[in-house]
## 1
Amino acid sequence: MQAHSLHGFFLNSAHTLRGLDQPFLMRKVQGTYTNITFGEVLNSIDAIASALHDMGLRKGDRVAFILENSPEYILFDQACLKLGLVNASLYPTLSESEIEYILKDSESKAILVGTPFLLRRILGIDERGTSLQHIFTVFDTESQGKVMSAKNVIEHGKQKQSEYASTIQEIFNSIHEHDLASLIYTSGTTGVPKGVMLSHGNFMSNAKAAKTIVSNIGPDDVFLSFLPLCHVFERLATYYLSTYIGGTIAFAEGIETIATNIKEVRPTVMASVPRLLERIYDRVQKMALADGGLKSKIFLWAFSQGDAKRLLNEDGKQPGALLSMKLAIADKLVFSKIRERMGGRMRIVVSGGAALYPHVGIFFKNLDILVLEGYGLTETSPLVSVNEFERQVYGTVGRVAPGCTVAIQNPDTKEMHTVQTYESFDKNFTCPEGEILVKGPNVMHGYLNKPEATAEVMDADGWFHTGDVGTFHKGYLKITDRIKNMIVNSFGKNVYPTPIENQYSKSTKIEQIFLIGDKREFLTAIIVPSKDDIKEIFKKNDAFFEEADPFIPDQNIHDWIEQDMKKLEKDLAKFERVKNFIVKRQPFSVEAGEFTMTQKVKRKFVEAKYKDAIDAMYY
């Protein structure tokens, strides 16, 4: 079946790749994961589509979504895709003013709401005036005014299905790749959110490219979904990719239950952010090495065998008989036990959203769990590049995706250093550093209602300017940093903070690090330490982390962190080394206004918020 829209992906999986009686979704009900089949999902989609059409929603209308990941998200999204409606997703954690702005900017006519708390917020905003005509709730509630529960929407739709079946089929047949599928609002480190307009074709080209470059995923794969579906990464890497290949999606109960849910679901594929993988790495390292002795020696020996195999593989070679025997022992004693904690079947973790520390990727590679680091933006739907299943180069974000074209441009002279495609791949290729530019069917249609902002990032030749600095290394794209993150010290030296922060973050004592130094003589940092380590080593309780002073003045804690920093900075140039730092009591967070929704530090905000403490480091 040749799909002409995203809902066509789902239909192909339901009817051709899998079967209506096969599981598509898994959710936990009364303590047990239960399956929802393709047939059951399709029946609900058709009922919802009939109800939405009966309520007057027409092709091109916007439907807002503000809820956590759940089957209902997918049911309503698929119904919208079938009708040509546009999903305008919002983070449930947004402030009321941000929610109001997005509802008005998108002119959403309906909204799907996840909790009673959010419903109260939406009703309060609606009283001040919005375009909302319908408010649907995932939870049971009485139909009143604009409000109706999802359950009642489905019941209403079932009564209208026969009446609208042919009309809805005609609408579905009229939808093509160029039609708008979603508005995803970028959080941004500055300014108001921008609604990125993404079409069916944008996402479809990305799903096809992902399948080509990671060719061994298919209908037998089970994905664990825990990153927010309102973000482009999870939407593509778990949801739309699953509908394209016929996979099954299991929903985690929440971020705090992932460790338990992994064991229950036993997924084979997962999209993740680096921080989760780093925490797994840190926890395993501490447990294995804390007591020393024979246990630690076996652990280190096992990973040395894994390293030997990995280095051979990178040269295109296979282990000999002796190494193979050692690896079998290492797997039995160490690797298999760690894999079992991740369900025992995990094959692939796709990492995105931030830089992955190479040592973390190598750790999982030794376990035979491939962490495929990729790169993309909301504006590119998001995939631009990803490490291939057959070849990983840690510290890079992989091969240019099929259909995508990537250029590296000198930001000052505008000279093009190189233009690369999937087909032009050369495993030995390198080039000078510059801004990353992207062309292809994955690039957005622009920012909603913001032609000036669109023109700032889309040039006359059709290139999307990412604002990221990068190069090519061993044929794979490598990210240096954001252009706007660049620090220019008082001597005029350009310093990109992210690679330096990544180096210091190899210490398990450091939870977060934020570099400072623009127009200053040397670099300083704000460091958030590992809370668990502080509690264990320095015998601090939770009240210690709630004290009013945002910084920890304890010199013993400062010296303890500095021990690791002195070791790690030997690999840095002198001008890249941190000369002074302060220890922050609480992590940087979205709630404190210090992080974007995608966990990027708002650098200007943080520097202004802690200006006095920062200035004191230079006196």
## 2
Amino acid sequence: MLNFNLSTNEMFPDRPRDLAGALRLMWPYLRPFRFKFISIVALGIVASGAELLTIGLILPLLETLFGRERILLTANTPIAFVVDWLAPLSAEWRLRVLVVVMFALQALREATNFANQRLVATVGTDLDATLRKIVYDRILFMDVRRIYGETVSRLFAYLNTFTVHAGQLMLALLQALPPALMFLVYLGVLVRISPTLTIAGALSMGVVLILSNWIMSRHRMWSERMGVAAVTLTHRAFETLSAMRLIRMFSREDFARREFHKDVEEYRRGRVAAATLNAMMSPLNQLIGLMLLVVVVWIGTAHFIVDGQVFAEMIGLYLIVLMRLSGPIAQINSQRAHIATMIVGTHWVGEFLAATKEPILPSGSIGITKLIGDIVFENVGFKYSENEMAAIDNASFTITKGKVTALVGASGAGKSTTLDLIYRFYDPTSGRITVGSNDIRDYTVESWRRRLASVSQDTFLFACSLRENIRYGNLDASDEEVEAAARAANVEEFIPSLPQGYDTLLGDRGMRLSGGQAQRVAIARAILADPDVLILDEATSAQDAESERLVQQALAKLSRDRTVVVVAHRLATVRNADKIIVLEKGQAIEIGTHDELVARRGRYARFVELQDLTV
């Protein structure tokens, strides 16, 4: 049984993942929002101040209603100055003034909260968008070796899932800020009214808070498992869609369905567990409120006694503040659960961004607009990693300008690596590649690659129209130039069979076209790019006779007056090359024309014999 399941440690390094670590990883990307963070804090302080003043007016309101304002002036309260200010007024006007002022304060608080929430939402969504752009840019320019070492689903998760987690984490933190400030305000008022009662209530909440922390740790663990399961699901879905023909050829539909259902079940279990733990927070919040109510009523009746009287106003004020305190506590606990869910994904995207921070290939400073000489390999060596054998080992040869140079050799000889070095997907680990008198590393990467174009066996077409696929070679090309390139590449031969002609959508990876048709589109794209160097990598392999004839005709037009590098296993396609370079174990062991190499009776001659090629 094949095992495609990916464990957490296999997919992502096993490191401690906490909020502080996530914020450290995200800090470089949060700095542009620092002024908005300051604004959010300032708005939260204004809202908290309005709420504090409102609470300060509750006791004078209760005193006026109970008609005992002079008695309570001796109580230890923070709002005696308010009572002094209102004392000259009659009870009727005092009530009117208090109600209007309290309404104005609450209106200010709600307006401030609205502005705060809008700003918070903007920061969260802007961070999400910023991270998506950065991750996409990093994927575009990251080391080719890393791209080959990653699964598409994991890269997609960095781009489309974990960036959302980072944005949601900041959203949750910022949304927790106003309740946290309110919590401090309410707590300060409660302590000022009765330190003893507040301490007793806090001690009674200890057990509940311990349970809450346990729930949060379990929630974080299940969130991590759920994140891994989600990436595994995406990975399997990508592979299934890409390998649909293979699955049906081997009748593996039942196997694919069982494995996918198993992954769905693992993801479901994670979501159910996380949802269950999240649902426990609401009862806990209610339990905290009820527990505090019991403590206040039980102890408060004995605590607020002056001259044998229980002051209902003080108990009422304490209960009002306490009930308002339950709201921020519930909001903070809710955001804690959300934060626990988002921490893991934020860590993953942060670690990805940290690992891809430096540019992979330094770009030179010289712009090249025309190939000015031969492409010369001077003692070039290259290793994919320090622990691997050299893919190119001290190779020296020349690709002559304006001529056709063929690279031949067994699989693993270094042909594809040589092409990658020409394209600057990698740089040599020793030696250098020159054009004219300059190392190609002296040229800007973009200008150098614009001098090259490639047609390969594995042609990639986008899921857009035929016209736009050809125009990809030169985004500024007119429709007339696109159609001229199509004619030169023999594309127009099959256009009548397309329902919308040039505007026909080709489907994912150009599935609407045959292999030969797709290669002719790739040739048209290369013609439109107008390169100085044309790279043909098995460009005519696996074609029927008629398709190969049309492709060869198109390639002949494209190759005219250009430097051409050909890679082919079928020697019949390279025998007319101006120069043939035989590679073995990363070294150029033979160089010459077809006739010269056959006459030497060396490795190339052996290849000729194996393919029964007529000399």
## 3
Amino acid sequence: MYFRLIIFYLFILMACSQTNESSSSSAVPLRSEIDAKYKWDLTRVYPSDEAWEEDLAKVKELSPQFEDFKGKLLSNPETLLSAIELSEEIGQTFGKLYHYAANNMNVDLKNEKYQAMYQRVRNAAIKSGSYSSFYAPEMLEKDYSVVESFMSQEPKLAIYKKSFKDLYLDKPHTLSEKEEKLLTMTGKMSGVPSEAYEIMKSTDYEWGTFKDENGNDITMSEGRYGKYTSSTDRRVREDMYKALYVPFGKTINTMSVLMKGNVEKNVFYANVRGYENTLEARLKSAGISTSVYKNLINSVNNNLQPLHRWAGIKAKYLGLEKIEPFDTYAPLSEYSRDYTYEEAQAIVKEALLPLGPDIQNLIDMMYDENLIDVFENQGKESGAYQYSVWDVPPYIKLNFSGKLDDVFTLAHELGHAFHSYLSEKSQPYVYSGYNTFNAEVASVTTESLLMDYLLANAKSDEEKAVLIQKYIQDIGSTYYRQARFAEFELTIHEAAENGEILTEDFLTTTFGEIYSKYWGPNMEITEEEAFSWARIPHFYRNYYVYAYATSFAAGEKVSERVKNEGQSGIDGFIAFLSSGSSDYPVELLNLAGVDMTTSEPFEAVSRKMNFLMDELETILK
């Protein structure tokens, strides 16, 4: 149990005013130039670096004490409970230590102080894990009936019933104490590929430049991709796109070695633990069959027609024989607008009114208590995420640039915050997290409700067309694109398992072929797109991306229930948000009225995409 907590925290990094909008200038602002009200306040985690140092020292003292339970775990119920309570105290402390170091680092990746603090806590966690490596082997020496007896004698142990069951289900893959200790010690090495990838991309890359619609020289950054990829000027879109991939093209061989090391790491751990393959190793402990993953890929491959149709529609209305990847987000309507961050806040809050007053109160907490880091700054990690650990409110990192996508990103990350906050308030620590299979359901639901609100309040056909296009593109990017990534990830892992060498040519050719299959005959793939696998950080998170696609399908079903069934649908959604990991992922979705054991949720997404394209073509004609 404790060993798993340590591993969890090792991989936890793996989810305005005009004067502050960084994309309005050719230079990304320094963090010191951004108003404090737009920056998160991490003193809620630790009031100072000194307080962090005190907790690090404390956890270093606590960790060796776990070894005192060696040989005694199942001597009596009280001893087992004491061991678990100590492991939870250590795990909770490491959670806060990671939170503070990682999130100070992620808003300024050039800050060597917080890089060092992150490495120190990571090293301490690895060493701490070695003290608990005996836990699983010793527990599994005796029959589960002994643990059942202990639970009947000590009521406080009863809450760990599912955790105990999970442990015994993993018995075939649990090694000896010595072997578990050795695996714990490999932690420093196993994280090198992803760490090198992030540092290269965030600090070493020299981005290309391009000219915007007004002829201004713009230095590319990943934070600017969202703004210029939807430009109405095709020259700007293409030049921006090529500028984005300049550093990836220059380092593609290095990136291929990092990806090779990442995949081989996963193969190593799967083989050592006796799993049939890396996919089983990733899913089995969560109670998810590999058939669910493969069912997603098969269902999507059987329903590629809507995506092929969408490429044809885009080519037709853009006046092109074929589109290219930089046309993917090109607008088909002239309507566009920018949003201040304050406007985005107000829109999202009103859109989520159907979820009830408790959710509105959570939104106020997130907005008013400096829990959101809003704008891009120099050295800040790209993208967005929500970060939550025990006994600390959720935090959200954005790179808000004032576009429609940024409004949806705010709604998306708030969905994660609702899920984290309610699960932590409703569940004991051991079940306060949630599996990646369910991780995106809440965020897809909040995005869907936002879309419904915006469509209902659209003031013109042009605005409605833009919103419908956004909806279609979300299906393309969150459902089809993530399923495509999942297929690529499975393909390269299976290749490595079969002895294939993951060269740059193999990775790029495989990615390009899958891309062309998904988009069909109306898409002309570019050289840059074929090696764009190198730009995707999620590939370092070991079979994570499939959860975006499954969650999208589930989230659409949940939002439909909220809209059509009123309070019953809301109650089911809140019950799901509050469930944490108290049961297995597929079973927990039943609380929200969603059955993921069939292909129906996936097929429903394809049907909806066709319906939306019918609506859009009616407006465009």
